[in-house]
Design brief:
The structure is a single chain. This protein has 16 helices and 17 strands. By secondary structure, the chain is an alpha/beta fold. It has two domains: 261 residues, TIM Barrel (Alpha-Beta Barrel), CATH 3.20.20.70; 70 residues, Arc Repressor Mutant, subunit A (Orthogonal Bundle). The strands form four sheets. A nine-stranded mixed sheet has the order 9-10-8-7-6-5-4-1-11, sandwiched between helices. Strands 12-13-14 form a three-stranded antiparallel sheet, with no helix packed on it. Helix 2 packs across helix 11. It binds iron/sulfur cluster. The site of iron/sulfur cluster (SF4) has 11 residues, from loops.
Length: 391
């Protein structure tokens, strides 16, 4: 097998990140399916959180980083309100400097979006809002334990688009009790919102969540696999027919509306990250901050090590991950680009798997570029284990 050259590895690790993620761990209430790193109903911790973010940013030497993308996720950054958002951006701008034309995204909950929040977001340099809409059906929103209404989603999108912000809305499928007809109506309503981007996720039943506990006790029932698949097929058909490009397994964009920040992750470029549970990547090593908001804050403010986890990939492991992230995208993998970026020939890393997928109609190969077919994308979660296994 061709081995990675040290030049390639060094280039990956020495390149300063042009993307940064900031985790804002506050929500009004914890939705029953959510296992993210956050605290609900603990606004008393916001001042300490801001102080800890300011302190963590000093990991970067002055003047900090010039960024092509900055993404504030959570939790719910919009829960900070207009003044809290201004305060957070003032702190971030001491070390994180979005370049002219940079994509700056904040996640928002529909119930938090007001004219003054949108004004503050724009004044802080935000260009894009990712809205946790999940559904435009009142019954589905209740089933998902969300604390907003369909009208909150419509009103929020209207405010944000009127301010000139790019908007992405999340849609959840396979919610408890949700039917194919419900998803059909949701897709119509979502397309009518006129946003540039949609992210579609199938509900997962994570250990430790309220939903998982209710399901173990027989009080909630996950959708069966064939219904999940039908919902995903319907989603792809309807959104493509409406002019959205299905550019990654879970993501759809109108022309020019792709999320540039996520493309950094999928390209395996380095990125910085701050806040509880936030993971940063330097091209080889992924370091994840302590997941508990209170432990992360205490350790950061006390000058202690606040690392939760760290993982250093071998060049081969990094190449294997590049295969997975690349094939999740509709553009797939170009052999030459893969070799230049990873130091490995694609066929040495995943050739046997790719040949099996082609034989099953899950992938195509024109000699230069390998891509999953529509069927391959539908079953992609089940394909990756064979690529990621030790060689
Ligand atoms: S609003 Fe989002 S981050 Fe907050 S609890 Fe609900 S799903 Fe989790």
């Amino acid at each position: 097998m061709k081995t990675a050259t040290s030049d390639i590895v060094n280039a990956a690790t020495q390149q300063p990140p042009r993307a940064a993620y900031v985790h804002v761990p506050f929500c009004r209430h914890r939705c029953g399916y959510c296992d993210f790193s956050l605290v609900a109903g603990r606004d008393d911790l916001i001042a300490s959180y801001l102080a800890a973010i300011e302190r963590e940013l000093t990991r970067l030497e002055s003047p900090g980083l010039e960024l092509a993308t900055l993404y504030l996720g959570g939790g719910t950054p919009s829960h900070l309100g207009p003044d809290g958002l201004r305060r957070l951006f003032d702190i971030l701008h001491t070390r994180l400097r979005p370049l002219p034309g940079a994509e700056v995204t904040i996640e928002a909950n529909p119930g938090d979006v007001t004219a003054s929040l949108a004004t503050a977001a724009v004044a802080c340099g935000t260009t894009r809002v990712s809205l946790g809409g999940q559904s435009l059906d009142a019954t589905t929103l209740v089933a998902l334990d969300r604390d907003h209404t369909p009208d909150d989603v419509r009103r929020a999108v209207d405010i944000l688009l009127t301010r000139g912000l790019a908007v992405s809305v999340d849609l959840m499928t396979a919610a408890p009790g949700q039917t194919l007809a419900d998803v059909d109506r949701d897709l119509d309503a979502l397309v009518a919102l006129g946003t540039q981007h949609l992210s579609v996720y199938c509900l997962t039943w994570e250990k430790g969540t309220q939903f998982e506990s209710l399901s173990r006790r027989g009080m909630l029932r996950p959708a069966d696999e064939s219904l999940e698949r039908s919902m995903l097929e319907l989603t792809i058909d309807r959104l493509e027919a409406a002019g959205f490009e299905h550019y990654e397994v879970s993501n759809f964009a109108r022309p020019g509306g792709r999320c540039q920040h996520n493309e950094t992750y999928w390209d395996c470029q380095p990125w910085e990250a701050f806040g509880p549970g936030a993971a940063r990547f330097d091209g080889r090593e992924r370091i994840t901050n302590h997941r508990s908001t209170t432990t992360w804050m205490r350790r950061v403010l006390g000058g202690e090590d606040f690392t939760g986890d760290s993982e250093t990939m071998t060049p081969l492991e990094a190449a294997q991950e590049r295969v997975v992230l690349g094939l999740r995208r509709r553009d797939g993998l170009r052999r030459e680009a893969f070799l230049n970026a990873s130091g490995f020939a694609l066929d040495d890393v995943a050739g046997a798997s790719i040949r099996r997928w082609i034989a099953r109609g899950l992938a195509t190969d024109d000699g230069q570029q390998v891509r999953l077919t529509r069927e391959g994308l539908l079953v992609s979660d089940g394909l990756w284990a064979e690529v990621l296994r030790p060689m």
